[in-house]
Amino acid sequence: MKRNLYLLIALVLLAGLITGCVTTRQPLVLQDEPIKSAEAEDLKVTMRFLDDPTLKAKFGERTNPFLTDYFTVQMKRIMVFEITVENMRELSVGLASKRLEIQFGGQNRTPYNRFQLTNYWETKDEQQDTRKSDRARKAGVIKDWVLPNELTVAPGGKVKGYAVFLGNFPTYGTAVVYVPVLQAQERPIHRFEFDFSF
């Protein structure tokens, strides 16, 4: 009986500790400009960091696949960037999401593709018994906004989409995002680099 009581007390303390740790995590707050642009080799790339208030205003909260769940024990922060590539060259260029990269807090990550992000939310939504209509809405938002695995930008053309990074990223520091624009055979024409301070 006494042993069960000690076990119960230990579990309550552990739950309190976990809950306390989870709720102290904060959303990222950008310390500089959210929109950055660079031009090279007749290409222009613009990156915009999308913070939680911006994402909530655009997609709401309940069916928004771009918001970090701050109340889980295993913390995976979601970072979303809107990327625009303008091609002023005479030939088409390419963008492959698997070649994008973020370096932040000692971690290197490539973005989740549409399938990975949908699967991530399907698993979480099953655990939380989310309504099927809400799951379908999330999947639709992912399909409409997340960059495809590969895309082509025609001469004089422009493409735009979201790169979604997941990782145990810190709350403070400088994140560096690399965006290589490619020519045939996936050879880089230029690798654009953007710094964001949090």
Question: Overview of this structure, please?
Answer:
The structure is a single chain. Helices cover 29% and strands 35% of the residues. It is of the alpha+beta class and 198 residues long. It has one domain: Immunoglobulins (Immunoglobulin-like), CATH 2.60.40.10. A four-stranded antiparallel β-sheet has the order 1-2-3-8. It has a four-stranded antiparallel β-sheet with strand order 6-5-9-10, with no helix packed on it. The protein has a two-stranded antiparallel sheet with strand order 4-7. The protein starts with a helix and ends with a strand. Residues 16-23 have low confidence and may be disordered.
What topology emerges from the helices and strands here?
Layout: H1 2-23, E1 35-40, E2 43-50, H2 52-59, E3 77-87, E4 93-96, E5 101-104, E6 107-109, H3 114-127, H4 132-145, E7 150-153, E8 158-167, E9 174-182, E10 188-197
Using the coordinates above, name the CATH class: Mainly Beta
CATH topology: Immunoglobulin-like
Query: Number of helical segments?
Result: 4
Q: Report, as a whole number of angstroms, the end-to-end distance.
A: 51 Å
Total E-strand runs: 10
The SS-based structural class is alpha+beta
As a percent range, the share of helical residues equals 25-40%
Instruction: Report the CATH superfamily.
Output: Immunoglobulins
| Unreliably modeled segments | 16-23
CATH architectural grouping: Sandwich
**Element string (H = helix, E = strand):** HEEHEEEEHHEEEE
Most strands sheet: 4 strands, antiparallel
Taking all Cα atoms into account, the compactness measure Rg is: 20 Å
Q: Please indicate the count of domains.
A: 1
Mean pLDDT: 89
Strand content: 25-35%
Shape: globular
